[in-house]
Amino acid sequence: MQVASIDKQISVCPQIMPEDVPDIAQQGFRSIICNRPDGEAADQPTFEEIEAAAKKFGLEVRYQPITAGKVQDEDADAFGEHLALLPKPVLAYCRTGTRSATLWSLSQANTLPVAGILTKTKAAGYDMAGVVRRIANGGRTPTETAEDARFDVVIVGGGAAGISVASSLLSRDDDLDIAVIDPADVHYYQPGWTMVGGGIFDASDTAKTMASLIPAGVHWLKSAVAAFEPKDNAVILDGCRVVKYDRLVVCPGLKLDWHGIEGLVDTLGKNGVTSNYRYDLAPYTWKLVQEMTSGRAVFTQPPMPIKCAGAPQKAMYLSGDHWTKSRRIDNIDIQFMNAGGVLFGVKDYVPALMDYVERYDATLNFFHNLISIDGPARKARFEIKEPGTDPLQVDVEFDMIHVTPPQTAPDFVRVSPLADAAGWVDVDQATLRHKTYDNIWSLGDVMNAPNAKTAAAARKQAPVVAENIISDIKGHSATAQYDGYGSCPLTVERGKIVLAEFGYGGTLLPSFPRWLVDGTKPTRTAWLLKERILPPIYWRAMLRGKEWMARPEKVTAA
């Protein structure tokens, strides 16, 4: 008997036998629902046999037989009623457990988000892709099965990657019928938030309305995605609207898992707890830095991957610079808590960074992962996992703490057929085409190519995807390839930046000659690039399909 737990209230399993009931009771179950009709197979026990065995152990039982492949809307309603009334936890079974899992999924459609239902059932070993439209439709069978809209290209995500690839496509073929799906009203220039937290930019300068940035002629579907049906070339939106496509681009960014750290959500924006990873909190970072005259300042970095891997230490350097110039640095204990084992993943940039670690007298604590935080008590708990040693936990007091949250692919991506085992969209790292579905591409933070997740990476990826989609439309193979380029302007002090530019495998990929910008050293030129040049390039070039220094590299013959 293989029992799969969906949540604390309900588990499902294949056909049980009367002799299994003692073990079921031993596991703590208080009720059983049978979803398999009697007589479906010659070797199955009758419901009466299961019921008689269950009553000996005081278990409640219900008989709700469902014919395989014929779960009706009213069946899901009845299952939900059983689940509400029966003592918990409940064990439901059928021949394989699939009918029971389906009934649960449909019964919870008005209670849980689609991605939440798919996550729970997937973890239990059951794929609910076949009923995803019904789940998205509140557990009811849609009255219409035809698509609500169809486009040549559908782009999921209206961030840096999504708008850039839409513009790059139109610059190549302005007759394309393109739709961008994104529920957000505001588009953010997220690379600017580090500068907001350092007192250089105003937060308002990093935000524009989405409507002002969607390219002319591109349809904006202001909705959230519920699920993907790649075999049917369909994207299911909240409310069960069906959008069909000839080609799909997936780039919704990643999910900042604020709830992944116990107690964090309750204390963000107060008690000295801040993060430059949120628009509304970056100004609080600068406020804390300005007001701090002594005490301990903690900066955290979670396990990879995260967007802009240098951002956690950028916050530390800019803070340390302010405290140095205001002559407070000797009274402030800076602690950098890194879940990884190195300061920066590309070794060529580490010597310059270490000079600033020493300048600010910052203590580097590797293999320290933030797991909980008590804001009012000003204590943070870290789990230490050094290789070859047993994990242990330590509590660290703080006066100020800058938290970088753990990050994952969005839920609707992680549970989709597009995802790899880790939950990221599974692409060829050169062409950015999906490895299974030939008419799907992905770019930006959500795909699984081993590159840095930065806006600079998306700037180089968008033309590659656009070029390859146009080539595919013409019936040709991929013509452009991505070399893994990413850029991380490490703001080591106000006025100087270590401009890290690299590709796959840590290969250095500088954009400028060394005499102009030596990326391995802090330079004023790199600072001017970050402060003065990159923001207008982002707003006026990248998002408008003007591929300055981003023309795609051609595929080389094998």
Automatic annotation (TrEMBL):
UniProt cross-references to Pfam families, sorted A to Z: BLH_phosphatase, Pyr_redox_2
Cofactor(s) the protein requires to work: FAD
GO BP term, example: sulfide oxidation, using sulfide:quinone oxidoreductase
Keyword check for Nucleus: no
Molecular function in Gene Ontology: FAD binding; hydrolase activity; quinone binding; sulfide:quinone oxidoreductase activity
Residue ranges constituting the FAD/NAD(P)-binding domain according to the UniProt record: 151-270
Boundaries of every Beta-lactamase hydrolase-like protein phosphatase-like domain copy: 6-110
Record key words, sorted: FAD, Flavoprotein, Oxidoreductase, Quinone, Transit peptide
Protein name: TIGR01244 family protein
Originating species: Roseibium alexandrii (strain DSM 17067 / NCIMB 14079 / DFL-11) (Labrenzia alexandrii)
